[in-house]
C-alpha cells in the first residue's frame, strides 16, 4: 500500500529520493510487458517518486515499505487546469 508523505523543502525531498534510489538499485531497466524481457530501447526508471509543491511543502506518494521516518500528510496536489 502507498500513502502521501511530506517534506519541508525540495532539498529534503531530493536528498531522500537520492537515498531511496540508491537503496533500491535505481535506475531500473525497462521491462517489455508482453515478453517480460528487458527493453534496451526504452527509458529506464530513474526516480522513485514524483514530488509536488503544495502549501509550502513537497508531497509525494511512497510505498509503506519505504516510508520509515517520513511524515504522513493530508495535503494533495491540485487537479490540473482544464484544457481550453
Verbal overview:
The chain has 84 residues and is an alpha+beta fold. It has one domain. It contains 1 helix and 4 strands; from the N terminus they run E-H-E-E-E. The chain has a 4-stranded antiparallel beta sheet with strand order 2-3-1-4. A hairpin with a 2-residue loop joins strand 2 and strand 3.
Strand numbers in spatial order across the main sheet:
2-3-1-4
Number of helices: 1
Number of domains: 1
Integer average pLDDT: 95
Write down the oligomeric state. single chain
| Percent range of helical residues | 10-25%
Secondary-structure element series: EHEEE
Structure summary, number of beta strands: 4
Layout: helices, strands, pairs:
Layout: E1 2-7, H1 10-24, E2 52-54, E3 57-63, E4 71-72
Antiparallel strand pairs: 1-3, 1-4, 2-3
Brief overview, please?
By secondary structure, this protein is α+β, with helices and mostly antiparallel strands.
Question: What features would you highlight for this structure?
Answer:
alpha+beta, 84 residues, 18% helix, globular, 1 helix
